[in-house]
Amino acid sequence: MNAHRAMHTLKILSMTAVISLITGCSNQSSDTKEQTISKNPWANAYNEQSKERFIPVELFTGATWDGKHELRLAPAENTACAQAIGRDRPCDKYHLTGPFTTKNQSKIDWVGDEIEYYKRTFSTPYGGPVESHFTINKSKDGLVRIYDKRKRWGERRYDGVGSKFPLGYWKQGEVRHYKTRAGIRVEILELNGPDNCLTFRWTIGEGRRKNDDNVYTFCPEKGFSKFRHFE
Question: Which of 51, 52, 159, 165 is the most interior residue, by most CB within 10 Å?
């Protein structure tokens, strides 16, 4: 009888040990996953089940992202090196700083008396220096260009409608249209590529003119990384 009880007790202890081992491994796996997300918040931006990704402003600016699903113009200063696909030349450098706050001297009627924006500057081989200002658009699903200055057409101000870079929640292959004067189309080509990079196609009008139909790639901690112009 004592021997039977001893065997029964031994079985219970063995089962308890196995359960503890499984639970411990499970907790360790959970802790490892949380540590991975905390070290790389970009891993928490994409939902594998819904195939949906949250795109923060920091992907555009190249700034460090804290993983919060919030759209904000946080302080940023970055020089991105974007490579032109299909062209044998050094990468183009894009300098971005901000945000700055200015009086509403544009055509934007929904921002109040002031507007925050990022300033991006670069230089083209033939067109000279370019300065553009970007802010979150009215529909809160993209960054839009509100000011542009270049040799080709001088200064231009815009009404804040449309999009130049997708923000917020998007799905793979999703296409959105914006009712601007010429019409803007944004299509997600690769929502969550290698290194959590984003590739999308931006088209204005019918995309027949130079620079009216482009593919852009932006990567975490880098910002603007690659582009291709359809001509």
Answer: 165
Structural domain boundaries enclosing 149:
46-229
Instruction: Write the CA distances from 136 to 10, 21, 23, 74, 206, integer angstroms.
Output: 66, 50, 46, 12, 24
From 75-84, 124-133, 138-147, the region with the lowest mean pLDDT: 124-133
- Looking at the fold, whether 96 and 201 belong to one and the same domain comes out as yes
Instruction: Give the count of domains, the chain.
Output: 2
pLDDT in tens, 63-116: 999 999 999 999 999 999 998 887 777 888 999 999 999 775 566 777 777 889
Query: pTM, whole model, 2 decimals?
Result: 0.79
Instruction: Give the integer Cα–Cα distance in Å for 230 and 91.
Output: 18
Rounded CA Rg of the chain: 25
Do 24 and 104 have their domain in common? no
Q: Are residues 132 and 225 in the same domain?
A: yes
9 and 117, same domain (yes or no): no
Q: Which residues contact 112 (CB under 8 A, 6 or more apart)?
A: 104
